Known about the structure:
This protein is an all-alpha fold. The chain has one domain (1-262). It contains 16 helices and 2 strands. Strands 1-2 form a two-stranded antiparallel ribbon.
Amino acid sequence: MDWGFKRLSAVAIAMAALAPATAFAASCGNDGGGFDRWKQAFAQEAASAGVKSRGLDALASAKYATATIKVDRAVKKAFSGDVNSFMQRRGGAAIIAKGKSLKKQHAKLFDDLERRYGVPPGPLLAIWGMETGFGGFMGKQNTVSAIVTLAYDCRRPEFFTPHAIAALKLVDAGVINASTVGAAHGEIGHTQFLPGNVLKYGVGSMNLREMSTALASTANFLRAHGYRSGPASANRAAIAGWNSASVYQQAIVIMADAIDGN
Length: 262
């Protein structure tokens, strides 16, 4: 998952998040008790940020996501241990093996992505495998409810608020809807983009449940974060743009280089 680093531009964050920061800090909560009252205030902030009727309707229907909070509280544990234990838990050997197979199966697609974005197949396949098991499980948590709950929660409202605004804008645009499901932190699609990064780095239809669109968007993200061709091991900083956890970055580099034969 890339919830630690999928960012809006500095300007977008300033516009969407800084103005309402005081209100959010004053009204955040650590349980669902004040969620409905907070949503009423947040709806005004969302409208001021440009969210239209469909997005506001989706906000109104959002529920406090207890499952999201449970996952969020355990997130540090998920990235604990050394890289070997992390890869064992996450099925690193299986990701490498299947990644090599998919690289051959979709050779034309990956060749095209490398020409367009300068990102070889390995990093894309490693991220795809790590995030959703190559699309095998993209999550079952309501996306709007998840990201709005995290914007309300007191732990990191300043980070998740711009993504909540973005999710509502994606509803307005018809990219997602009030019933869309994804991962626990509001991530979407094959490679698990946070909503703000769908807006900024998503390509084409921005439908990240479609494989080629998700992979192209991921390549676009990595290029924007400094990926300059060559192996993943020579582009660790760009991988860090995807996820802040050192153990995750190490695992992606190891798997990507193995898939690409480096």
